[in-house]
Design brief:
Layout lengths: L6 H28 L5 E4 L7 H6 L4 E5 L2 H8 L10 E3 L11 E6 L10 H14 E12 L3 H6 L1 E12 L2 E12 L4 E12 L2 E12 L3 H10 L4 E5 L13 E7 L1
Parallel strand pairs: 1-2, 1-4, 2-3, 4-5
Antiparallel strand pairs: 5-11, 6-7, 7-8, 8-9, 10-11
Length: 250
């Protein structure tokens, strides 16, 4: 099963990922949501990077996440009348008494599912919650073989102020588990608090996928109609693609 985000990472999530990811995927997912007339479900809604914008723009959107720390941050931004829209559930076995025209699992949610059984259960559970002709979209990265084999050591991918005069840094290291097709990631957060610099590690594995593996996986599920895009502009796969964007239809 997926690993929950600790509270420190939830605290700084917005700051880090609005910087690292918004230019990559926000226009794509928010465009898909805005073009959907019916209900939308975001799986892995986190602290609301897409959810809040979509809700404020009038989308009939709901969200689930497995991390209490992330849901708690999101609820601080919501009116109480909208609390029913978010719940603590997993993609594998969530249950909602409604159908959705669009379900999304953005930014590597699917890569947190390490076992084949959970991957199939997740796909079939999403399928059951889609309305007729409904659409499911998720993304995973195209494996970089050099990075997989060699890993990454102490790479700073964010360094900025979270309050005036107070900085937060994120440092990433990875080690491969090629036999089990995993990337073991060590995220280190360093931040100024009071008169000291604090640190917290978060260790989490991600399951990476290759193209034909993804195709076989989807074809084992209840989905029969799908395509795999190579970028968030809607183009097909090419040698230089760094994203798999999987679009499944019921």
């Amino acid at each position: 099963m997926a690993h929950e985000y600790p509270e420190t990472f939830a605290r700084f999530y917005d700051l880090i990922y609005h910087h690292l990811r918004d230019s990559a995927d926000s226009a794509f997912y928010l465009g898909e949501i805005s073009s959907t007339k019916g209900k939308v479900l975001e799986i892995g809604t986190g602290t609301g990077r897409f959810f809040l914008t979509a809700l404020n723009e009038g989308a009939d959107i709901y969200g689930i996440d497995i991390s209490p720390s992330m849901i708690n941050v999101l609820r601080t931004k919501l009116d109480k009348k909208d609390f029913h829209r978010v719940s603590l559930q997993s993609i594998v076995d969530f249950s909602l008494d409604m159908e959705f025209d669009l379900i999304i699992a953005p930014f590597r949610v699917f890569m947190h599912l390490l076992e084949k059984d959970d991957q199939i259960k997740a796909l079939n559970n999403v399928f059951r919650h889609l309305s007729k002709d409904g659409k499911f979209i998720f993304d995973v990265f195209v494996p970089n073989l050099n990075a997989l084999i060699n890993g990454i050591s102490n790479q700073v991918d964010f360094d900025g102020e979270y309050e005036p005069g107070k900085r937060v840094r994120r440092i990433v290291s990875t080690s491969p588990d090629l036999h089990n097709q995993l990337i073991n990631i060590d995220f280190l957060i360093e931040w100024d608090e009071g008169n000291e610099t604090r640190q917290q590690h978060w260790l989490t594995p991600l399951r990476y996928f290759f193209r034909f593996e993804l195709e076989h996986l989807i074809e084992r599920s209840d989905f029969r109609n799908y395509k795999i895009l190579g970028d968030f502009q809607g183009n097909g796969l090419i040698d230089k693609s760094v994203e798999f964007i999987v679009v499944c239809r019921k």
